[in-house]
């Protein structure tokens, strides 16, 4: 090992980093591997204050998101929101805020995840020296609420945060509101329950945001990367009771959101921006329905997982053949075949009509 590498923390030396779509890469002209939107909007920038540090939490942006998030009877104040560099930073800040890392004398706290699910929960915990406990999704890939409750309430439990992804990436499963309420009540004062709603704009009626004001231990993370088509600017939000946001605000970087990002995000959350977003969602949801229905008819497909976000996870009879065909035709997908319980699975981002037609043409030829 080099002189420098051995200076790194042992957990970092042993860490396998999260392989994002960009780090994996690929060759092609149709990118359906990162759950990105197939289009983007135009925005105006005021560059007159680029010599100044940005606001810690830009008031116009926070107010705009509070107004947007206040739906289905839930009303949020600015004190209940934190904007971050994507939802990924929210995940890390939550762990750094509420979990004690392991030390030479103590085991430290842990997070609990329900795999198969989004990989950054575990990566963020490991980089912070926090252990990762697991409760597998049930046979239908739904959360096993009873098992999660037992894990949190066990006599020797060190679980401080439970991460529940809904729509779950990559399986698309949603949360059961009544069971979630029981879990929140059973874990009150013991652990935070974090609902990751990165894809919730594609099924807004299934959001858990209306539960926040009644449950101090519920936290929701959101992003502008998906439905808002702003993956490049890295802007996310945490919605919770003010007590949670106050603690997170102690830990997050002093200038988490660059001014150009705040300007673009605020425009995206305007009345016109929201209209554009909802039109995009309607188009992509229709494209998803067409794709899922077509996949059901293909002999090479064994199973279609719940289609709730801007992606569809499909289990093929032989994913290697499918993957090769996509690669040879310049279409880049996300391969999950090596993941436990996801053998022969490929995740397909829902793109525009032309991209979906190209995808189905290849599959029909197999």
TrEMBL record:
Its cofactor is pyridoxal 5'-phosphate. Its EC number is 2.6.1.9. The keyword Amino-acid biosynthesis applies. Homodimer. CDD domains: AAT_like. Residues 39-361 form the Aminotransferase class I/classII large domain. InterPro entries: Aminotrans_II_pyridoxalP_BS, Aminotransferase_I/II_large, HisP_aminotrans, PyrdxlP-dep_Trfase, PyrdxlP-dep_Trfase_major, PyrdxlP-dep_Trfase_small. Keywords: Amino-acid biosynthesis, Aminotransferase, Histidine biosynthesis, Pyridoxal phosphate, Transferase. This is Histidinol-phosphate aminotransferase. Pathway: Amino-acid biosynthesis; L-histidine biosynthesis; L-histidine from 5-phospho-alpha-D-ribose 1-diphosphate: step 7/9. The gene is hisC. The keyword Transferase applies. Belongs to the class-II pyridoxal-phosphate-dependent aminotransferase family. Histidinol-phosphate aminotransferase subfamily.
